[in-house]
Amino acid sequence: MNIYVIMKRTFDTEEKIVIENGKISEEGVEFIINPYDEYAIEEAIQLRDDHGGEVTVVSIGDEEVEKELRTALAMGADKAVLINNEDLDDSDQYTTTALLAAYFEDKEYDIILGGNVSNDNSTGQIGPRLAEKLGIAYVTTITKLDIDGTTATMERDVEGDMEVVEAQLPLLVTAQQGLNEPRYPSLPGIMKAKKKPLEEIDYDDLDVDEDEIEAKTETVEVYLPPKKEAGKVLEGEIGDQVEELVKLLRQEAKVI
Amino acid sequence: MAKKVLVFAEARDNELRNVSFEAIGAGKEIAAGGEVIAAIAGENVSSLTDQLFHYGADRVIKVEDEKLKNYTSDGYGQAFLQIVESIDPDAILLPHTSMGKDLAPRLASKLDAGLISDATGIELDGETVVFTRPIYSGKAFEKKKVKEGIVIATIRPNNIAALEIDESRSGEVFEESVEIKDLRTIVKEVVRKSTSGVDLSEAKVIVAGGRGVKSEEGFEPLQELADLLGAAVGASRGACDADYCDYSLQIGQTGKVVTPDLYIACGISGAIQHLAGMSNSKVIVAINKDPEASIFNVADYGIVGDLFEVVPLLTQEFKKVLQTS
Ligand SMILES: Cc1cc2nc3c(=O)[nH]c(=O)nc-3n(C[C@H](O)[C@H](O)[C@H](O)COP(=O)(O)OP(=O)(O)OC[C@H]3O[C@@H](n4cnc5c(N)ncnc54)[C@H](O)[C@@H]3O)c2cc1C
Ligand SMILES: Cc1cc2nc3c(=O)[nH]c(=O)nc-3n(C[C@H](O)[C@H](O)[C@H](O)COP(=O)(O)OP(=O)(O)OC[C@H]3O[C@@H](n4cnc5c(N)ncnc54)[C@H](O)[C@@H]3O)c2cc1C
After folding, report:
1. Per-domain residue ranges for chain A?
2. How far apart are CA B277 and CA B211, in angstroms?
3. Are residues B217 and B148 in the same domain?
4. Which residue blocks in B159-202 are alpha helix, DSSP H?
5. C-alpha dihedral, B101 to B106 to B112 to B114, nearest 10°
6. What class does CATH assign to A2-213?
7. Are B287 and B267 spatial neighbours (Cβ–Cβ below 8 Å)?
8. CA proximity to B306, closest of B205, B207, B221
9. Chain A touched by B279 (CB under 8 Å)
10. Which atom of ligand 1 approaches the CA of A129 most closely?
């Protein structure tokens, strides 16, 4: 099976956000593989182990993404591809999709796995956008995946309810939490990863026209939410506190 | 200039979701005196069209087909795309729900258009629509616009006001006939897992439990409180990881992001990843036995105590006051 994973490098979930000169500062920030993409990588590795074939992890970003790609290789992926967009000064989900679509244009794939949403921009657009461009079916927020021949049977999370969905390969799926338990790279895995192929492509080596990948959207402003004032911790007998809380919720906050 | 705005409404269990009305409200703002057209698709949606007018739609388009009984991106994609082509709107709004998240990017990709996902606010800057949306799971916000061409956006539930309902409003319902074909994904089964009828992302009140609830049974007092308040039950990842509840209840950076009027956190420590999912709630109540727990830093009201004592008392107290009012 030809298995591909699209992966994004994002801020560690522990990071606090600092804005400098109107932009989110990356200074001193720890980066990770987007958590949902870890599920995608894990699932891809399990698919390969069950069905044979190869797992290729593809990411668009700058040189730094090499670190997360190596991590994916250490987890067990076979190949990594970095599409370098450092020289691109304007990008949004439309652009990213266009680049990925150009990359996949001449590839043979049975399944492409991604995260259902990124940790930073959090639009969840890339999976469905890419599938549409490639003309293949997609299923988002999956929590289970079984492949038998060319038929994929999936469970997907639909706002708490579960849907069982069937589709034919080639297919694009996006991972939801619960799909699996991503493994940690083992020490031998990390050693092996160093020798695994990591190909770097410059975005303009892809068959794309600069005009055709220009972002469709523009960020006008980035800001932090207003700081919350410290709240009221109630005091006294528990019974009295509860009574006061109900009163406050009804009369002061007026939410009940 | 007046604009033509197409709103894709969504129904669940044959009831329109509130966010559909909020999207019509948003549509009104963008239309700036122009027309808001609400579209609804499903197996049988005729009973829903009146309400779309009541909430401000100027025109309603319906597509009915048994193949639209369950949402699939292919089925709904074909239906909605055909409507987009026949209406040729200036803007399209969808709810930022499972359906909208799945469908909007596909439409945008097909139309080679920009899409603003998960909008929590809208303002007009002359002719331009500027959307507010959370980034980094609500740790920051951005204002964003589409540079040119059709504007597509998904609207986060609970953030943009719907118009006041006016049952005297009515209008003409148009039926669009769409030939739904070549469905590449088939929904075999839908398993209801949500315990109460209240959906987390749209709930006005959420009672959430963390590792402090200690067991699956530990959620019972929370459920009782939630039932009384018409609330949804949510959870921290701590509680999900410990198997006290299903992952579908998880709130936070890798779970649902919610903005209810009232969030009651019980036995949740307040890890940054949890806060990311709920800190923009209007009012937060924390119940935790550890006075140092970070959840108190974001709480409007806190009770330091044992949740198994506090939550039942709270239910009792609410029962008392809600009965007498
Ligand atoms: C110079 C520059 C400027 C930018 N300016 C903007 C801007 O103005 N507005 C804006 O929104 N974004 C901007 N970006 C960020 C970038 O375009 C988006 O973050 C990217 O399109 C992914 O969108 P998302 O985070 O919404 O992903 P989502 O759609 O939420 O991600 C879903 C899944 O898609 C896959 N995926 C996402 N991104 C990638 C990737 N890079 N490589 C491989 N797979 C991926 C992953 O599997 C991920 O889990 C800029 C980036 C650069 C380099
Ligand atoms: C990549 C990543 C993503 C993550 N995403 C999420 C996410 O989306 N959502 C999320 O919630 N977490 C997420 N986490 C996990 C997060 O870091 C915390 O581990 C988790 O939120 C802790 O859950 P908790 O507060 O229930 O448990 P704990 O931190 O163990 O806290 C339990 C609390 O209960 C209190 N308590 C115990 N008994 C009682 C009692 N009887 N009465 C009252 N209080 C009591 C304790 O004082 C304590 O404060 C993520 C972590 C990572 C690394």
Report:
1. 2-213, 226-256
2. 17
3. no
4. none
5. 0
6. alpha beta
7. yes
8. B221
9. yes
10. 29
Would you say residue B324 has pLDDT above 90? no
Chain B residues 229-248 with CB within 8 Å of chain A: 229, 246-248
Best probe of the A interface among B107, B263, B278, B300, by most A CBs < 10 A, is: B300
Query: Where residue B197 falls among pLDDT bands split at 50, 70, 90?
Result: low
Q: pLDDT per residue over B40-99, tens digit each?
A: 999 999 999 999 999 999 999 999 999 999 999 999 999 999 999 999 999 999 999 999
In a domain, B229, yes or no: yes
Pair B159, B284 in one domain? no
Q: Is A18 on the interface with B (CB under 8 A)?
A: no
* B21: containing domain: 4-175
User: CB B189 to CB A219 under 8 A?
Assistant: no
Residue B147 has pLDDT above 70, yes or no: yes
**Residue B195 CB-density burial (10 A; 0-12 exposed, 13-18 middle, 19+ buried):** middle
Give Dmax over CA atoms of chain B in angstroms: 61
Residue B55 and residue B171 in one domain: yes
Last residue of a domain, one of B158, B175, B192: B175
Q: Is residue B191 part of a domain?
A: no
Q: What would the mean pLDDT of A173-200 be, rounded to a whole number?
A: 97
Give the integer Cα–Cα distance in Å for A162 and A52: 29
Are residues B216 and B167 part of one domain?
A: no
Give the number of domains in chain B: 2
Torsion of CA B151, B156, B162, B168, to 10 degrees: 80
**Among B175, B190, B217, which residue terminates a domain?**
B175
Q: What are the DSSP E strand ranges found in A42-95? A: 54-61, 79-84
The size of chain A, in residues, is 256
Pair (B149, B215) in one structural domain: no
- Residue B180 forms part of a structural domain: no
Task: Tell me which residue in A122, A129, A218 faces B147 most closely, judged by beta carbons.
Answer: A218
Cα-based angle B286, B289, B291 (whole degrees, multiple of 5)? 75
B230 and B163 in a single domain? The answer is no
Predicted pLDDT of residue B196:
61
Query: Do residues B161 and B36 share a domain?
Result: yes
A111: which 2 tokens? 């399944």
Nearest to A112 by CA among A41, A184, A206, A201: A41
Three-state SS string over B207-266 comes to EEECHHHCCCHHHHHHHHHHHHHCCEEEECHHHHHCCCCCHHHEECCCCECCCCCEEEEE
Q: Is B149 within a domain? A: yes
CATH of the domain at B135: 3.40.50.620
Instruction: Kindly state whether A227 is in contact with chain B, defined as any CB-CB distance less than 8 angstroms.
Output: no
Q: Is B196 on the interface with A (CB under 8 A)?
A: no
Same domain, B100 and B153: yes
Is the minimum distance from the CB of B109 to ligand 2 under 6 angstroms? no
Would you call B247 and A164 a contact, using CB atoms and an 8 Å cutoff?
Answer: no
Chain centroid to Cα A169, Å, comes to 21
> A–B: how many Cβ contacts below 8 A?
266
| Confidence band, pLDDT 50/70/90 cuts, at residue B248 | confident
Across A87-91, A196-200, B273-277, the highest mean pLDDT is recorded for A196-200
